[in-house]
Amino acid sequence: MKLASLVIAAALAASSTFALAAESAPEPAAAAPAAAKPDLNAGGTKFGATCAACHGADGNSGIPANPKLAQQHPEYIMKQLADFKSGKRTSAIMQGMAATLTDADIRNIAYWAGSQKAKPGFAKDKELVQLGEKIYRGGIQSKSVPACAGCHSPNGAGIPAQYPRLSGQHADYTATQLMNFQNGTRKNSVPMADIASKLSDKEIKAVADYIAGLR
After folding, report:
1. What's phi and psi for 22, nearest 5 deg?
2. Fold (CATH) for 40-114
3. Up-side HSE of residue 15: CA atoms within 13 Å toward CB?
4. Banded pLDDT at 2 (limits 50, 70, 90)
Protein backbone atom coordinates (compact mmCIF):
# COMPACT_ATOMS: atom_id res chain seq x y z
CA MET A 1 0.00 0.00 0.00
CA LYS A 2 2.83 2.35 0.89
CA LEU A 3 4.58 1.56 -2.40
CA ALA A 4 1.38 2.25 -4.34
CA SER A 5 1.01 5.61 -2.62
CA LEU A 6 4.56 6.57 -3.60
CA VAL A 7 3.94 5.65 -7.25
CA ILE A 8 0.74 7.73 -7.34
CA ALA A 9 2.51 10.69 -5.73
CA ALA A 10 5.36 10.49 -8.26
CA ALA A 11 2.89 10.37 -11.12
CA LEU A 12 1.05 13.44 -9.80
CA ALA A 13 4.35 15.33 -9.39
CA ALA A 14 5.39 14.48 -12.93
CA SER A 15 2.00 15.57 -14.23
CA SER A 16 2.32 18.91 -12.42
CA THR A 17 5.83 19.42 -13.81
CA PHE A 18 4.69 18.83 -17.38
CA ALA A 19 1.70 21.15 -16.90
CA LEU A 20 3.96 23.90 -15.52
CA ALA A 21 6.39 23.46 -18.41
CA ALA A 22 3.56 23.69 -20.91
CA GLU A 23 2.23 26.86 -19.28
CA SER A 24 5.64 28.52 -19.16
CA ALA A 25 6.78 27.49 -22.66
CA PRO A 26 6.78 30.45 -25.08
CA GLU A 27 4.12 30.41 -27.75
CA PRO A 28 5.44 29.94 -31.30
CA ALA A 29 6.18 33.24 -33.02
CA ALA A 30 3.53 34.41 -35.44
CA ALA A 31 4.54 34.20 -39.07
CA ALA A 32 5.54 37.52 -40.62
CA PRO A 33 2.74 38.91 -42.79
CA ALA A 34 3.31 38.38 -46.48
CA ALA A 35 4.23 41.50 -48.42
CA ALA A 36 1.26 42.92 -50.29
CA LYS A 37 1.31 42.31 -54.00
CA PRO A 38 1.58 45.42 -56.17
CA ASP A 39 -1.49 46.53 -58.06
CA LEU A 40 -0.16 47.44 -61.51
CA ASN A 41 -3.44 48.95 -62.68
CA ALA A 42 -3.56 51.24 -59.66
CA GLY A 43 0.12 52.00 -60.15
CA GLY A 44 -0.39 53.00 -63.77
CA THR A 45 -3.31 55.24 -62.85
CA LYS A 46 -1.40 56.92 -60.02
CA PHE A 47 1.71 57.30 -62.19
CA GLY A 48 -0.35 58.99 -64.89
CA ALA A 49 -1.86 61.42 -62.42
CA THR A 50 1.26 62.16 -60.37
CA CYS A 51 4.44 61.32 -62.29
CA ALA A 52 3.80 61.34 -66.05
CA ALA A 53 4.12 65.10 -66.55
CA CYS A 54 7.82 64.97 -65.63
CA HIS A 55 8.76 61.33 -66.27
CA GLY A 56 6.75 60.57 -69.42
CA ALA A 57 3.49 58.69 -69.82
CA ASP A 58 5.34 55.37 -70.03
CA GLY A 59 8.18 56.25 -67.69
CA ASN A 60 10.50 57.33 -70.51
CA SER A 61 11.14 60.93 -69.63
CA GLY A 62 11.70 63.24 -72.57
CA ILE A 63 13.21 65.90 -70.32
CA PRO A 64 16.99 65.47 -69.86
CA ALA A 65 16.88 66.82 -66.31
CA ASN A 66 14.29 64.24 -65.22
CA PRO A 67 15.21 60.56 -64.99
CA LYS A 68 13.74 57.76 -67.05
CA LEU A 69 11.93 55.39 -64.69
CA ALA A 70 10.81 52.74 -67.18
CA GLN A 71 12.35 49.32 -66.47
CA GLN A 72 14.02 50.62 -63.31
CA HIS A 73 14.20 48.11 -60.47
CA PRO A 74 11.06 48.60 -58.34
CA GLU A 75 13.03 48.27 -55.10
CA TYR A 76 15.21 51.22 -56.11
CA ILE A 77 12.25 53.43 -56.98
CA MET A 78 10.57 52.50 -53.70
CA LYS A 79 13.69 53.42 -51.73
CA GLN A 80 14.08 56.76 -53.47
CA LEU A 81 10.44 57.72 -52.94
CA ALA A 82 10.70 56.68 -49.30
CA ASP A 83 13.88 58.77 -48.96
CA PHE A 84 12.17 61.79 -50.50
CA LYS A 85 9.21 61.30 -48.18
CA SER A 86 11.41 61.08 -45.08
CA GLY A 87 13.70 63.93 -46.15
CA LYS A 88 16.75 61.68 -46.46
CA ARG A 89 16.93 62.74 -50.11
CA THR A 90 15.99 66.32 -50.88
CA SER A 91 14.15 67.93 -53.77
CA ALA A 92 11.43 70.52 -53.32
CA ILE A 93 9.38 69.01 -56.14
CA MET A 94 9.90 65.34 -55.34
CA GLN A 95 9.46 65.76 -51.59
CA GLY A 96 6.14 67.47 -52.21
CA MET A 97 5.02 64.69 -54.54
CA ALA A 98 6.22 61.86 -52.29
CA ALA A 99 4.45 63.37 -49.27
CA THR A 100 1.09 62.68 -50.91
CA LEU A 101 1.80 59.00 -51.56
CA THR A 102 0.85 56.09 -49.32
CA ASP A 103 3.08 53.05 -48.95
CA ALA A 104 0.72 51.20 -51.30
CA ASP A 105 0.95 54.03 -53.85
CA ILE A 106 4.75 53.89 -53.74
CA ARG A 107 4.80 50.12 -54.21
CA ASN A 108 2.26 50.19 -57.04
CA ILE A 109 3.99 53.04 -58.89
CA ALA A 110 7.41 51.42 -58.54
CA TYR A 111 6.31 48.06 -59.91
CA TRP A 112 4.29 49.63 -62.71
CA ALA A 113 7.24 51.78 -63.83
CA GLY A 114 9.53 48.78 -63.60
CA SER A 115 7.22 46.83 -65.90
CA GLN A 116 7.49 49.40 -68.69
CA LYS A 117 9.98 49.05 -71.55
CA ALA A 118 12.87 51.52 -71.42
CA LYS A 119 13.72 53.36 -74.62
CA PRO A 120 17.42 53.45 -75.54
CA GLY A 121 19.51 56.59 -75.18
CA PHE A 122 22.56 57.85 -77.02
CA ALA A 123 25.99 59.18 -76.16
CA LYS A 124 26.54 62.62 -77.71
CA ASP A 125 30.12 63.68 -77.03
CA LYS A 126 32.50 61.68 -79.22
CA GLU A 127 35.54 63.29 -77.60
CA LEU A 128 34.58 62.10 -74.13
CA VAL A 129 32.88 58.77 -74.77
CA GLN A 130 36.16 56.81 -74.73
CA LEU A 131 37.12 58.30 -71.38
CA GLY A 132 33.64 57.50 -70.09
CA GLU A 133 33.90 53.91 -71.24
CA LYS A 134 37.30 53.55 -69.58
CA ILE A 135 35.94 54.80 -66.24
CA TYR A 136 32.73 52.79 -66.44
CA ARG A 137 34.43 49.52 -67.31
CA GLY A 138 37.74 49.84 -65.49
CA GLY A 139 37.48 52.65 -62.94
CA ILE A 140 40.38 54.98 -62.20
CA GLN A 141 43.06 53.05 -60.36
CA SER A 142 45.15 56.10 -59.48
CA LYS A 143 42.16 57.61 -57.61
CA SER A 144 40.82 54.36 -56.16
CA VAL A 145 37.64 54.77 -58.18
CA PRO A 146 36.03 51.37 -58.82
CA ALA A 147 34.54 50.39 -62.16
CA CYS A 148 30.88 51.39 -62.41
CA ALA A 149 30.24 48.07 -64.14
CA GLY A 150 31.10 46.22 -60.93
CA CYS A 151 27.82 47.29 -59.34
CA HIS A 152 25.71 48.48 -62.26
CA SER A 153 26.73 45.63 -64.61
CA PRO A 154 28.60 45.94 -67.93
CA ASN A 155 25.46 46.84 -69.87
CA GLY A 156 24.05 49.15 -67.20
CA ALA A 157 21.23 46.81 -66.18
CA GLY A 158 22.15 47.07 -62.49
CA ILE A 159 21.35 44.41 -59.92
CA PRO A 160 17.73 44.10 -58.71
CA ALA A 161 17.18 45.21 -55.10
CA GLN A 162 20.80 46.39 -54.85
CA TYR A 163 21.98 48.75 -57.59
CA PRO A 164 19.88 50.79 -60.02
CA ARG A 165 19.64 50.37 -63.74
CA LEU A 166 21.65 53.08 -65.53
CA SER A 167 21.41 51.98 -69.16
CA GLY A 168 20.14 54.76 -71.43
CA GLN A 169 19.66 57.26 -68.59
CA HIS A 170 19.82 60.93 -69.56
CA ALA A 171 23.40 62.19 -69.32
CA ASP A 172 22.26 65.51 -67.83
CA TYR A 173 20.43 63.74 -65.01
CA THR A 174 23.29 61.32 -64.27
CA ALA A 175 25.87 64.11 -64.24
CA THR A 176 23.71 66.21 -61.92
CA GLN A 177 23.31 63.32 -59.47
CA LEU A 178 27.05 62.64 -59.43
CA MET A 179 27.70 66.32 -58.75
CA ASN A 180 25.04 66.30 -56.01
CA PHE A 181 26.75 63.31 -54.38
CA GLN A 182 30.05 65.14 -54.72
CA ASN A 183 28.94 68.42 -53.15
CA GLY A 184 26.82 66.82 -50.44
CA THR A 185 23.44 67.89 -51.77
CA ARG A 186 22.46 64.25 -52.14
CA LYS A 187 23.27 62.20 -49.05
CA ASN A 188 21.36 58.93 -49.35
CA SER A 189 24.27 56.77 -50.56
CA VAL A 190 27.60 56.85 -48.74
CA PRO A 191 29.42 54.72 -51.35
CA MET A 192 28.31 56.99 -54.20
CA ALA A 193 29.28 60.12 -52.30
CA ASP A 194 32.76 58.67 -51.78
CA ILE A 195 33.18 57.71 -55.43
CA ALA A 196 31.84 61.02 -56.78
CA SER A 197 34.18 62.99 -54.50
CA LYS A 198 37.13 61.58 -56.46
CA LEU A 199 35.87 62.50 -59.94
CA SER A 200 36.67 65.65 -61.88
CA ASP A 201 33.96 67.56 -63.75
CA LYS A 202 35.30 66.18 -67.01
CA GLU A 203 35.23 62.61 -65.72
CA ILE A 204 31.66 63.03 -64.49
CA LYS A 205 30.54 64.39 -67.84
CA ALA A 206 32.35 61.59 -69.69
CA VAL A 207 30.92 58.70 -67.69
CA ALA A 208 27.43 60.22 -67.73
CA ASP A 209 27.54 60.52 -71.51
CA TYR A 210 28.79 56.94 -71.88
CA ILE A 211 25.99 55.65 -69.64
CA ALA A 212 23.39 57.37 -71.85
CA GLY A 213 24.45 55.16 -74.74
CA LEU A 214 24.60 51.85 -72.86
CA ARG A 215 22.25 49.11 -74.10
Report:
1. -65, -40
2. Cytochrome Bc1 Complex; Chain D, domain 2 (1.10.760)
3. 6
4. very low
